Amino acid sequence: MAEDENGRSVPWIPVFEASAKSFLATVTLALLSASALGADYHIEVLDKNEAPVPGVVVALEPLDGGSTAAPAPAIMDQLDRQFVPHILVVQKGASVTFPNSDSIKHHVYSFSAAKLFEIKLFGGDQEQEVVSFPKAGEVELGCNVHDWMLGYIFVVDTPFFTRTNAAGQALLAAPEGSYELRVWHPRIQDDSEALTTRLSDGQLNYTVRLNNPLLPPYEQEHVGEHQAYD
Amino acid sequence: MIKRLLFRVDSLRARILLLFLVTISIVTLLTLYLAQDAAYLHSRQQLEVHHLAASRVIADRLETRAKLLTGGLSDLTGNFSVKQLVASAGEDPGSLVAAMDNYRRRLGADMFAVFDGDGQVLVSSLPLDADTLRPQQYSSDELTWLDIDKAHYLFKTVPLRFVENSPRVNAWLAMGQLSNSLIDEELVALTGLQVSLLDNAERHQVWGSTLDSNTVVALAESLRGVSTGLIEVTAADEEYIVGLHELDSTPSVVTMVSQPQASAYLPYQALLLRLGLLLMVAAMLAALAAMRISLGISRPINKLVVAANRISRGENADDLPKRGTKEVSVLTRSIIDMQDGIREREKEINRLAYYDPLTNLPNRNRFTTFLEKSLQESDGESLTIALMDVDHFKEINDTVGHSIGDRLLELIALRLAQWSQDGDFIARMGGDEFAVITSRFRNHNPSLLGEEITSLFEHVFSLNGLQVDVNMSVGIAVAPEHGDNAPLLLRRADIAMYSCKGGHGAFAVYQDELDQHSVQRLSLMSELKEAIADGQLSLHYQPKLNLVDGVVDCAECLIRWQHPTYGFVRPDEFIGLAEQTGSIRLVTHWALNSALKQQAEWARQGIKMNLAVNISAVDLCDMSLPAYVGELQTRYNLSPESLTLEITESAIMQDPDSAMLALKNLRRMGVLLSIDDFGTGFSSMAQLKIMPVNELKIDKAFVLNLAHSKEDRVMVQSLVSLAHNLGLKTVAEGVEDADSLEVLKSLDCDSIQGYHLGRPMPVTEFETWLEEQQCPEVRSQAI
User: How many CB atoms lie under 10 A from the CB of residue B239?
Assistant: First the structure.
């Protein structure tokens, strides 16, 4: 099983086959356009057993001066008593709106160092709270009244970020410059600094290998009552 | 051992008792031993179960406590405020400390700590060695322990996640409880035991205990190296039963439950005590039963022993056991039978010993005993005894046969019995002798008794058609004047009886003279031998006249004893005695020797004189007599027919067969034989016919009165003709007058002898008489 963009579980093998074809096409495309549009970096994340790790956040942080691009706002919804999406990646300084699509109230909070906040019991009919994330890092979200709810907002200090596909691969286009490749996923136990790679000139393919086993995947143990009867 | 002891104990009762007691003791001891063993085992098992249960209770208590801590901590980790405080611990640790202390109190814990996700101490109530402490090690469900500054804590941690469903742990909350606060009196109440918690190392460290510290330390010291089990140890001068159990979850910790041994085994010892008492009572009852049984056996046996002893002493044994076992009953029956048998035999023996079987009268023994008894009891009063025998009983017996003789004795006894009155005592003394003891003649002349007894026998006895006239000789003696003891009285009665022997219907009362005479007679016998040697005896010669040729050609030799003290002793006084004592042989031999010597002397003088010598029945049985006679005749050169041996008819009739043999021998030698006193005995004609004798000597009883008695004349005539017809010569003795001589001549008697011719004379006188006879006038005068 793999997770799609929305963190939902989908069968990944057909996706992999399709991706493999597009991967070859993409590689060819990247080689051809490297000099003109900057570079397309191909990044692969493998676990200890050389198995691809899908859904991993990959980001290229520029080392020479910050990006000027304004961060795009994002939404972390509460739907069916889950955070949707499960993992949200935003650029530093981005504002994230926390709507409530459920009929019940939620109490969203984070005690993570990157952002401490709390949205006390609120419903969907109330004014939507907007929280800005000025600090890069992981923000773990919880709901004080629904213990099973878990969500992540990963704040990166770059506009160049994406997530690995079902084959554990990601293609990331970035203008010329020097970058650090960062990978993150809540299941990865390896020290994040150890996984951070400084990109070399002219090298476009990078493989990140995990030394520690992945944490167990997040499972929606405590499904909402509506969903339970869907 | 027991066997030797049993051998020593002789009495049956003691043996049975001992055997019982030994058996009971063995059973008792065995039971006690087994019961003790079983009770001990049971008691110990109970203890083990109890201790195990107690250790479970303790473990349970500890686990409950751990769960309580974990549960409390889990509640805290979900607490949003706590999360907030933990999240802000970096900036505001004081708030977290205050909150945690608050929750510590709530949970009743002794310490708390909060660690961050990496195990670093955020806050703690006690200084912790964070380098070695891994909080996750204390988060299991089991008991976990932490040593802090030499104190032991039940230490539990619970992970805290800011977001509950996060895979990462953000912090650890921890609470600790002191081990000694876990062990409290409530556990004592629950388990009934003293409870301790020890480190399960070589040296048990005490983690907590309800015992006082000295005791628990001492116990721990005693249990060094021991990790589990039920152990009896002595600590602080007291014995304890201790159960050690490792905690299942943490074997490094052991629970120790303990109790004083006294209280542990109290029910067990009480049980033993009760059992012991029960067995003692049982043993006592058994001993009583044994005693009763053994008494039941031994008491009758003892009674039987007493009875047997009484019987052996000749006493009457009546106290015999009436009840008892079968064996005892059989034994009792046997003893009763034995006693009856003994009584019967005693009676029979008594009868045989004291009664005459023929007449059923008391015998001599009984008579003597009774006489002695009566003398003792008579108290000086006079007592008369009579001793009697049947005259000529032997002859009667020989004539009529022994069975009729016995019958005669029975009849005599019957007459005496019929005559006797109360108080009289009649006995058969033996043979034909009877005796009477009576006190009836106390105040009368004792002769009356003699008269009464003799009168009893005046009537003849009728025996199988035979009329037998019996003469009794009765001797009477009176106590105490004739003697105060039985032997003396008997002897004197005997003397009296003897003195009247021969008379018809004679009795005699004892007189002293009789006794003296008797004494003389007895001493004579002892002196007779001496008298022969001393020449006190002499022969007198009585002439016999041959009526055929009118010459005195024969003389009868008669023995005379001139005793130096008593003077003349009559022949009938000592000859009869000599016959009885056997000394008659000496006398006969002496007489034969003297006679033949004299005959030889006369032959030398030219006097031819046949001599007649009397021999007794005893001599007749003496087979050496013919040889002796032959020897003498050879010695003195005499012809055999010059000697005539005179034998009384009664002597021959005592033993006719032997007499016949002896007579034949003598006759064969040529010696002439004459039957003396013929007519008074009981010779049968048949015997007379074959008797090898030469002459019959007609008894003087027929001759003395011959001149005046027609009957005597007929008798003598018959005898003479009888003798002549048998070829025998006749001699009449006791011729005392001329008339008788004339009668005899007319009756063809061959020879005569008597005072009319000449009395017995000593040698010299006889010689003189003989010379006178040579003168024809004298001779014719005499004849």
Answer: 13
What type of residue sits at position B221? E
**Same domain flag for A86 and A107:** yes
Chain B nearest-CA residue for A118: B84
Q: Do both A87 and A143 map to the same domain?
A: yes
d(CA B27, CA A58): 96
* Residue of chain B with shortest Cα separation from A107: B80
Q: Are B234 and B244 in contact (CB under 8 A)?
A: no
Residue A140 lies inside a defined structural domain of this protein? yes
Hey, which residues does B383 pair with through a beta bridge? B479
Same domain membership, residue A91 and residue A148: yes
Nearest CB among A144, A150, A222 relative to B166 is that of: A150
State the DSSP code for A70: P
Residue A109 has pLDDT above 90, yes or no: yes
CATH level 3 topology of B78-182: Beta-Lactamase (3.30.450)
Domain locations in chain B as residue ranges: 78-182, 355-510, 537-782
Contact: B83, A111; criterion CB under 8 Å = yes
Whether residues A34 and A78 fall in one domain: no
Contacts of B636 by beta carbon, 8 Å cutoff, 6+ apart = B596, B597, B599, B600
Q: Examine the domain organization and report whether A34 and A13 are in the same domain.
A: yes
Interface of B with A (CB under 8 A): 78, 80, 83-84, 86-87, 162-168, 170
Look at residue A67 in the predicted model and tell me its pLDDT: 60
Q: Which residues of A touch B166 (CB under 8 A)?
A: 140, 142, 150, 186
Residues whose CB is less than 8 angstroms from the CB of residue A196 and which lie 6 or more positions away in sequence, other chains included: A180, A181, A182, A183
- Band (pLDDT 50/70/90 cuts) for residue B761 is very high
Closest CA of chain B from A7, distance in Å: 16
Closest approach of A148 to chain B, Cα-based (Å): 5
Q: How many domains does chain A have?
A: 2
* Separation of alpha carbons B652 and B681, rounded Å: 9
CB–CB contact B166 A111 (8 Å): no
CATH topology agreement for domains B355-510 and B537-782: no
Burial A116-151 (b: 16+ CB within 10 A, else e): ebebeebebeeeebebbbeebbbbbbbbbebebbbb
Structure tokens at B348: 């029979």
B166–A109 CB contact, under 8 Å: no
> What pTM was estimated for this model as a whole?
0.48
Domain B537-782 in CATH 3.20.20.450: yes
**Highest-confidence range of A33-37, B332-336, B760-764, by mean pLDDT?**
B760-764
DSSP B212: -
Residue in B78, B162, B164 closest to A111 by CB: B162
Which chain B positions have a beta carbon within 8 Å of A150's beta carbon? 163-166
Nearest to A150 among B83, B84, B165 (CB): B165
**Residue A152 and residue A78 share a domain:** yes
Per-residue b/e over B618-637, b at no fewer than 16 CB within 10 Å?
bbbbbeebbebbbebbeebe
Q: Quick one: tokens of B385?
A: 């005894």
Dist CA B783 CA B757 (whole Å) = 8
The mean per-residue pLDDT over the stretch B513-519 comes to 67
Is A87 in CB contact (< 8 Å) with chain B?
no
Q: Across B198-202, B545-549, B777-781, which has the greatest mean pLDDT?
A: B545-549
> Range of A202's domain?
2-67+172-209
User: How many residue pairs from chains A and B have C-beta atoms closer than 8 A?
Assistant: 42
Residues of B with CB below 8 A from A144's CB?
A: 80
Chain B contact for A117, CB < 8 A? no
B355-510 topology per CATH: Alpha-Beta Plaits (3.30.70)
Contacts of B83 in chain A (CB under 8 A): 111
Phi, then psi, of B307 in degrees rounded to 5? -60, -45
